[in-house]
Design a protein that fits this description.
7 helices
């Protein structure tokens, strides 16, 4: 049984890794188109923070991350649908992160690696754990006792990750991108 778990993790990592490379290649092919976008982000970062309040940023974070989380749990009723959704979610996440990584590196050089890592820390660590645990919980949904309590704990962890993004990550990214 444990061996099957490691095979699934290995497949998951391969899928995300290949998607990451696909996102990086996409950016390489269209990097000239995104140069203006990067300049606009840098000049608008301070203005965005002043225009939006912290609660608006929190709602934005909850919406951006929450829609994937809610769809995951709605589709968990149908085992085939949730398996396809998990695969598509992982491919999308890999492509998005590969694109973001090369976007930062091509525009900021080695400092871009720091910007990329800062864009993921600390909230994405918590999101990754939440999603991995959710995938496992959905896979064993018929065998799990106290499922509602576990779901509520996951929900609070999800909200905590969104709060980390708004109160910790956004100011850190603003300092990195505007300095």
């Amino acid at each position: 049984m444990r061996e099957g778990f490691f095979v699934k993790i290995k497949k998951l990592l391969y899928g995300v890794g290949l998607s990451f490379l696909a996102g990086a290649m996409f950016y390489l092919f269209f990097r000239q188109s995104f140069r203006d976008v990067y300049n606009e982000i840098g000049s608008s970062m301070t203005k965005w923070q002043q225009e939006k309040g912290i609660m608006a940023e929190l709602y934005h974070s909850l919406w951006n991350h929450g829609k994937f989380f809610v769809i995951l749990w709605i589709l968990s009723v149908n085992r085939t649908a949730v398996r396809w959704y998990i695969r598509l979610f992982l491919v999308f996440t890999g492509i998005r992160n590969g694109f973001l990584f090369l976007f930062f590196v091509m525009n900021r050089g080695w400092m871009g690696v720091l910007c990329y890592l800062a864009s993921l820390f600390p909230h994405c660590i918590l999101f990754s754990l939440i999603y991995l645990y959710s995938f496992g919980l959905i896979e064993k949904k018929r065998q799990q006792k106290h499922k509602m309590l576990l779901f509520i704990i996951l929900l609070f962890a999800f909200i905590a990750a969104c709060l980390l993004e708004v109160y910790f990550n956004l100011p850190m990214m603003q300092k990195l991108l505007c300095d």
